[in-house]
């Protein structure tokens, strides 16, 4: 068991690390694709830079420092072996002409105190190591004071040898060119990758816009573009859209035929009852049943048909809500309407009016006061319908959206109806890309909120 726990522990840590990394990774395809391209490039360039700095740069600097140290060691040997020239002018001339070193012998004395060392300098450490190994005498170097020159002082028996040499003689000073080329090419490759990926992502975004517009019933001119796989997905979407539209057309045609036939029969019933001379209670009941059947038939067909075939168009919400207010006031209900923001939104006019009309009709059926509020922001259109009725229990607010469901409590959402009012309203709201939520109203009853994107 202990061994099994030890095996499971790394797997659990791996899953936690994976979830942590997934939570911090970008969610967009464009950003993820950039990471897939840029991350290997950065890793490769970092490895190359490290290899260059660690191998090539240090090796070249070590060899250059060793060569300069050998020249200095040779000058020291000559100075110690041939002390005939007390001023060492000949040796200085040889050092200047043949070795590119500026040499002079200073009077014997102590070396200067150690100066500040650079935070990161391959030259300082490499040259000091070579001086200790090849010469083995007390020395003092300054690689900081003069940017282009290096000063070296070596303690000898007869004085102090002072040497000035160019930094390039002991140091691979052109390495920054390699780094600049590496960074420059990386930036160029990243810029090319960004432009290329943007062109590749644009067809995917266009396909997503077309799918969203089709879900909202909006027409959009879409032609598949981009990579082969994206074009295949685009053609598949177009074919799916054709099949859906064909199925909707067939269903609409069938429903129109059924409704025509049933309306014909109901019309015959109404005509037969109208021609009857006797006005009896039984005849009145038959007429009521026929009217109820006609109303139920219209509700069923409206739910089954949905808003198929209707195109989206700009609708003035203020005008639409005023019309619904007028209808509610005709039935004796005090109604208030308030609109904030841009009142024009692009929706399916008849379907959206039916959606809000069903909510207003439910509010009128169970309350005396109605308040309708429309709010428009850059992304959403929200419409709330409040009433002062008995409301709906919290546990049943989702159930009432199911087709043919009617509550038995004091508030019956479709009293005397079919139980389709809220189902039709939510179906229309969701076909616009939104939804309907029920909550508590400030008036004391129910609040129905329609929220659709604009």
UniProtKB/TrEMBL annotation:
Principal subcellular localisation of the protein: membrane
GO molecular function, one term: ATP binding
Domain of life: Bacteria
PROSITE patterns the record matches: HAMP, HIS_KIN
Uppermost EC category: transferase
Keywords assigned by UniProt, alphabetized: ATP-binding, Cell inner membrane, Cell membrane, Kinase, Membrane, Nucleotide-binding, Phosphoprotein, Transferase, Transmembrane, Transmembrane helix, Two-component regulatory system
Transmembrane intervals: 29-53, 177-197
Histidine kinase domain boundaries: 257-454
HAMP domain sequence ranges: 198-249
EC id: 2.7.13.3
Topology class, membrane: Multi-pass membrane protein
Subcellular location, record wording: Cell inner membrane
Catalytic activity: ATP + protein L-histidine = ADP + protein N-phospho-L-histidine
PANTHER family membership: SENSOR HISTIDINE KINASE ENVZ, SENSOR PROTEIN CREC
Entry protein name: histidine kinase
Biological source species: Alsobacter ponti
